[in-house]
Amino acid sequence: MPNYNKITPAVAEQLRAAVGVGRFFYGDEIDPNYAHDEMPIYGKFMPEAAVDVESTEEVSAIMKICSQNKIPVTCRGAGTGLVGGCVPIQGGLVLCTRRMDKILEYDMDNLTVRLQPGVLLKDLAADALTHGLMYPPDPGEKTATVGGNISTNAGGMRAVKYGVTRDYVLALTVVLADGRIVELGKSVCKTSSGYSLLHLMVGSEGTLGIITEMIMKLIPNPVCDVSCLVPFRDVESCIHFVPKIKMANLDPQSIEFMDADIVTSSAAFTGNPIFPETVSNTEVGASVLVTFVGSDAEELDQKMIKLGEIAEAAGALDVLVVATTANKKAAWSARSSFLTAIEADTRLIDEMDVVVPVDKIPAFLIYIRALGEENGIRIRNFGHAGDGNLHIYCCSNELEEDDFKRRVKIIMDAAYTKCAELEGQVSGEHSIGHAKMIYLRESVGEDVFALMGEIKKVFDPDFILNPGKVCDM
Ligand SMILES: Cc1cc2nc3c(=O)[nH]c(=O)nc-3n(C[C@H](O)[C@H](O)[C@H](O)COP(=O)(O)OP(=O)(O)OC[C@H]3O[C@@H](n4cnc5c(N)ncnc54)[C@H](O)[C@@H]3O)c2cc1C
């Protein structure tokens, strides 16, 4: 790890002068929340200073000062990450983009929007709708920034039909570690123009540059939609149903998996038991929530009929149409609150966000449950069944923190090894941060991990951008 310098009072004054009044914070003035993200189990690390930036030029001025003084800079969006990505583990400066929250312009001929990185996902989604457009990526946490979504290549519930955040990024303005400003990509539909630094920047977690403006692709908003809940006796038959939906060419917008335990937690948390725990006196072991979109009701009716046929053949207990707008809203907000429901009744939490080939989901879930039982850790899981991305939560209210961490490490070590055996990857959408670095290294192997390190060096020779993250170990 390079030797970094501290932010002296003299450097603090330079940084304060680079931004307007009331946007630079030093020592005790810093918001204590900047020491962690939404997974505080990975440790709390206070920065020496923090700054709320408002423009590309300000970011450039700040990076020049930090680069000249060898001060680490950790970019922070809304701090909703789950791998310690925005946490300043080497101290230094936290550069927060939350005030860069302007949607700058729509291009209605090319169906794009230009915006700043601090715009919240929910604000972009709502604003696009007022133009008859949809921003397809739909990660669960709607108060994340779009800049954070790009930097983690966030996925979400509609990825099975529309893809992930990366698929909607056309162009980025990026400030490099030494303060230079570069433009990556253009507002075009395709390109074969050299190495795609644009795509390298997406998912780079603030380790290669600071994103200060972007052009994103939008699509016309689908006219109508319908959601159906398909309950099964057990996890295996539920998951084996997923590829059948795809093979039937039904092109679902989302296929979300939930097991019985998470449904119980969610009902207790929301006070609205929208997902049934028994159907015709049979206990539900697991369900999928499927959504279709289309241009008219007839098209959706056809899809639902077909879904009913394949569900029956696959042994489903029923197919429950989530009919009214109120029920649809309740079902999707219950699904979106799964993690919050876990957090509400759990003192100690750790998580993994593996992605495996869809047909390997049951094998992985059976394995992880057994690991949880062996090690005295409660496992909660749900996920994006359509793309094999599973969110596994290790939970305890009883254990001491050190004991919890020791047991969870045993589970994680074994689970990531199993994931590799099943040809899976370490993270489907939450990224690496500092929490999952060791597992990334094991998963990709020394050659690929070293190549990542070489790329980091080209962009950031002094390792001042978000040190100790992704491949910097
Ligand atoms: C309840 C809950 C549900 C969630 N559901 C999902 C989900 O369904 N799918 C999913 O993918 N994630 C999900 N997440 C995780 C989280 O919301 C995402 O990782 C999100 O993309 C983080 O955005 P943020 O603005 O909070 O970024 P932060 O947490 O502030 O930062 C995340 C990373 O991005 C970097 N970064 C942020 N902004 C910039 C920028 N402008 N330039 C360069 N680097 C930057 C940071 O340095 C850090 O490495 C969920 C989280 C919670 C708490």
Chart the SSEs and their pairings.
Elements: H1 9-18, E1 24-26, E2 49-52, H2 56-69, E3 73-76, E4 93-96, E5 103-107, E6 112-115, H3 121-130, E7 133-134, H4 146-152, H5 159-162, E8 169-175, E9 181-185, H6 197-201, E10 210-217, E11 219-220, E12 224-232, H7 235-247, E13 254-259, H8 260-270, E14 278-279, E15 282-283, E16 286-294, H9 297-313, E17 320-322, H10 325-336, H11 338-344, E18 348-352, H12 361-374, E19 378-384, E20 389-396, H13 401-421, H14 437-444, H15 446-459
Parallel strand pairs: 2-4, 3-4
Antiparallel strand pairs: 1-2, 5-6, 6-10, 7-11, 8-9, 8-10, 12-16, 12-17, 13-16, 13-19, 14-15, 18-20, 19-20
The chain binds flavin-adenine dinucleotide (FAD).
Quickly list its features.
alpha+beta, five-stranded antiparallel beta sheet, 20 strands, seven-stranded antiparallel beta sheet, Uridine Diphospho-n-acetylenolpyruvylglucosamine Reductase, domain 3, Alpha-Beta Plaits, 473 residues, 21% strand, globular, Uridine Diphospho-n-acetylenolpyruvylglucosamine Reductase, domain 2
Strand order of the largest sheet: 17-12-16-13-19-20-18
C-alpha termini separation: 8 Å
Which shape, going by the Cα principal axes?
Answer: globular
Radius of gyration computed on alpha carbons:
23 Å
Query: Treating each run of at least 4 consecutive H or I residues as one helix, how many helices?
Result: 15
Residue stretches low in confidence (pLDDT < 50, at least 5 long) are none
- Percent of residues in helical segments? 25-40%
User: From the coordinates shown, what is the CATH architecture of the largest domain?
Assistant: 2-Layer Sandwich
- Under CATH, the topology of the largest domain is which? Uridine Diphospho-n-acetylenolpyruvylglucosamine Reductase, domain 3
Which structural class best describes the helix and strand composition? alpha+beta
Question: Which sheet architecture does the biggest sheet show?
Answer: 7 strands, antiparallel
